[in-house]
Amino acid sequence: MSSTFAPPEALTKVPFHYCPGCTHGIIHRLVGEAIDRLSIRERTIGVASVGCSVLAYNYFNVDMQQAAHGRAPAVATGIKRVLPDRVVFTYQGDGDLASIGLAELVHAAARGERITVIFVNNANYGMTGGQMAPTTLLGQITTTTPSGRAVKEAGYPLRVVEMLATLEGPVYLARVSVHDPANVIRARRAIIKAFEVQLQDLGFALVEVLSICPTNWGKKPVEALSWLKEHMLPVFPLGEFRAVS
Ligand SMILES: Cc1ncc(C[n+]2csc(CCOP(=O)(O)OP(=O)(O)O)c2C)c(N)n1
Ligand code: SF4
User: What is the rounded CA–CA span in Å between residue 183 and residue 202?
Assistant: First the structure.
């Protein structure tokens, strides 16, 4: 019997530990599919970060390196410079990438490092219990903003892709979402593109993926998908902010 649907070879058979409905799993799959599609599994090295995706090294069927919280772009830079023929990507949450790791990210982008960054924005610190992240929306309730994020105390959400688009180093910058099937397909295209940029040795590429955290948002998965669409899309518009032909 022929098989019409199978998991990507670039993912292991280890079951994900993610909460039911969490879209980290979908994003892992899209990265795995991109690696398969480009036939780069044997020469890809992933850098896992710290956050709910801390165990990504168990799930990607490629060589993996664990980085300390926020340091993945610096670690990826080192790997890529020593092994320029490898395809190097990081997989980071918004707490990891946009808070403690912002300096590493911005400088890697400004230097135009030939790495691919997959940035999962779920508008909170998932792993540690749902604290406010730099991407938390105004008014959003988190464990550290129980009355909703207020400008006076906590300022405004950070738009990472728009900020990086002011730099000359990045070659490809996109924001996508996985809240419905059409957007999942667009997200897959953007992730493939971000790897192709590296294969063509063009420079730094980052894809921000809007993602849900039903557990810490206190919503059922389907409600969380609607919440993303209604509340996150107006603040984090989708599209390519730096494109390559
Ligand atoms: C140096 C350091 N500081 C703080 C922590 C605690 N910590 C672990 S994960 C995390 C935030 C993770 O949030 P995010 O990156 O948004 O990923 P998510 O869990 O939402 O996928 C924090 C603050 C740590 N592990 N190391
Ligand atoms: S806490 Fe949130 S981000 Fe972490 S696995 Fe659960 S739903 Fe996903």
Answer: 26
